[in-house]
Amino acid sequence: MKVGFLQFAPKLFHERHNLEKINIMLKGCKADVIVLPELATSGYLFTNQKEMKPVSAPAKSGRIADFFRNITAKENCAIVVGFLEKENDNFYNSQMLVFPNGRIEIYRKIHLFLDEKRLYQVGDTGFNVFEFRGAKLGLMICFDWIFPESARTLALRGADIICHSANLVLPFCQKAMITRSLENRVFTITANRIGTEKNETQEFTFTGISQITSPKGDILAQATEDEEILKIVEINPTDAQNKFVTETNHVLNDRRREFYEI
Amino acid sequence: MKVGFLQFAPKLFHERHNLEKINIMLKGCKADVIVLPELATSGYLFTNQKEMKPVSAPAKSGRIADFFRNITAKENCAIVVGFLEKENDNFYNSQMLVFPNGRIEIYRKIHLFLDEKRLYQVGDTGFNVFEFRGAKLGLMICFDWIFPESARTLALRGADIICHSANLVLPFCQKAMITRSLENRVFTITANRIGTEKNETQEFTFTGISQITSPKGDILAQATEDEEILKIVEINPTDAQNKFVTETNHVLNDRRREFYEI
Question: Most buried one in A48, A168, A229, B172, CB count within 10 A?
Fold first, then answer.
């Protein structure tokens, strides 16, 4: 199975530019699953909800869903992409998993970062896993990484590949994802963005270094901190079903839940 | 507060040699807390329980407890040290926290590695935290690291400093401890051993690189992979009580337990 990430610099407010960029970069990708950054269609650094509205969209209908249904059908692949979801008057920092047959599944970010707490609702979908071509894809977004419970929950629900859309600004996550892969024996695909956004009070520089990591903690693909690039690797997702870190140590079954505080 | 680790190469079966080495290396250490490796008094690679018996000892009385009570009183410090505990006919891979006033607390390793499953009982003490000079010390041993629940449990129970005695053979833990420090905003002290042990079927080379990491993920001290060394740093353990990774993101309170699988 061929899986990859698309690392690029979305432009804040410029949905058309962003979709066009995605369209060009994914053309002829010949992959099974591609992961895109968080809020890849809208940009990140919003000040208020009024600004967010024009680049928001409903989850399963409308121009963003249509756009990705179109690409996944044409390229015959699944895409995981972060987008700004609006449902009624609520905004969510969401991820769309779009299948080539047009089916769409949604994850709404649970652990909101900084001002996202003011702008978005806390996600209510839970951490879910969806099957595609024999692989189980788990969804999580950016800051979910710092809570080991996120990836753990996905692994316990059977994820082989954690599809992690990100807009990272802190320097720690990429290395931590090696730990997340190891401790759960799963593939992780962190699709991060690059570039800088600023408003009157803040300036965020996104750290790039998107990364695909194996269940054994090997980095299978990595981007630099400033390139726009699509990287694809061949993996065997069933490698993630072997949870033995040694011949007798199983990273899930050897847990001693009776001793854990939650 | 001054905290440190002692990295050295215990000799298998040679308790007297190991205690003498510890005694020499800790002389005049002028620290508050020193962490020593796992099974530091006995060595690691036992084949059967018959071999283990002569270098095992009860937890709170006997020659090993007496030896460390003596050092902690003389050096006016607390010591965390891995030892081979025997209680009735059961062996445990244990850690002793010895206070300068002679009080001793015990942690028995919960997540056993490889052949340890055959040789030792699973620890029954749980993950506990003990106060010393205003800092809360949490205890865990070696392979406990790969289960994020171990350090998380200690952090939720108030640990400021996780005292991690280790005999590491895999290459991942030292980097993972940066993640453990960050995700829990705690100090971690991994005291690893060096050297090689072999028996008829196995050969283990221990990886050294003992490490002290801050709640912000900074490495405050690190040994090489083959030196015998005592390293001590000055820390403020109350830094671990600030659980905010940004001004609005608290690594413990922001957990959304309703969405976690355990």
Answer: A168
